[in-house]
Amino acid sequence: MINDQETINIFIIRHGEAAKLWDEDPDPSLSEKGQLQSNGIVQKLINELDGKEFKVLSSPLKRARETAAPLQKKLGFEIKIDDTFAEIPSPEVTLSDRKNWLKSIFDTNVSDLGEVQKNWRDGIINSISRLEEHTVIFSHFMVINCVVGWLEKKTQMVSFYPDNCSVTKIEIGDNTIKLVTKGEELKTIVQ
């Protein structure tokens, strides 16, 4: 537990490249490139985490858990699986329709989201707001957009294109939550 004067650091990491696309497999593992990317997380975070007590949360999806594995091996922490940080729910959307459905969500105003997606977004924001210790979260593109959009007061669902294994940093302190740095953005956006 952190004392009242200390700033809490939150790192939200997008998973490495998946072996299959979102409309091909509901829960793919990492590709070879994704495995290499996840090994790079160790170097990105080792100095930030050195000497600090922190908890680690992960989406239950394989690509997020596999992205956490190299850092876990290096630092020996326990990973708590947290459904809050899973990918955006798409109930009743067939696998073949998921890509088009997701594209339609990109430009959607947050206030126009369906009830399931609004509840998912609210759960993410509430969970982030209640964190009381340094935390590393392994998650997804849309989860990161929920957090960044909320902190930047954006009305559109997607305003940021985090690259695979990018690290977005947030600080909580003095009754404020602020975005310190966004992770690296995708170099090209696939349409």
How does this structure look, described?
The chain is an alpha/beta fold and 191 residues long. It has one domain: 3-Layer(aba) Sandwich (Rossmann fold), CATH 3.40.50.1240. The protein contains 5 helices and 6 strands; from the N terminus they run E-H-E-H-E-H-H-E-H-E-E. The protein has helices spanning 32-49, 62-75, 98-106, 115-129, 141-151; strands at 8-14, 55-58, 79-81, 135-139, 167-173, 176-181. It has a 6-stranded mixed sheet, with helices on both faces. A hairpin with a 2-residue loop joins strand 5 and strand 6. The longest helix is centred in the first third of the chain and has 18 residues, at 32-49. The relative contact order is 0.22. The model has no long low-confidence stretch (mean pLDDT 93).
Please state the overall shape, judged from the principal axes of the Cα atoms: globular
Low-confidence stretches: none
- Named at the architecture level, the CATH assignment is 3-Layer(aba) Sandwich
Given helix and strand content, the structural type is: alpha/beta
The value of Rg in angstroms is 16 Å
Percent range for helical residues?
A: 25-40%
The largest beta-sheet arranges its strands as 3-2-4-1-5-6
Mean pLDDT: 93
Largest sheet: 6 strands, mixed
- In the CATH hierarchy, what is the superfamily? Phosphoglycerate mutase-like
From the 3D structure, determine the CATH topology: Rossmann fold
- Our measurement of the CA-to-CA distance between the termini, rounded to an integer number of angstroms, reads 44 Å
Number of strands: 6
Instruction: Write down the domain tally.
Output: 1
Regarding CATH, which class?
A: Alpha Beta
In percent terms, what proportion of residues is strand?
15-25%
The oligomeric state is: single chain
Q: What's the total helix number? A: 5
Q: What order do the SSEs take from the amino end to the carboxyl end, as H and E?
A: EHEHEHHEHEE
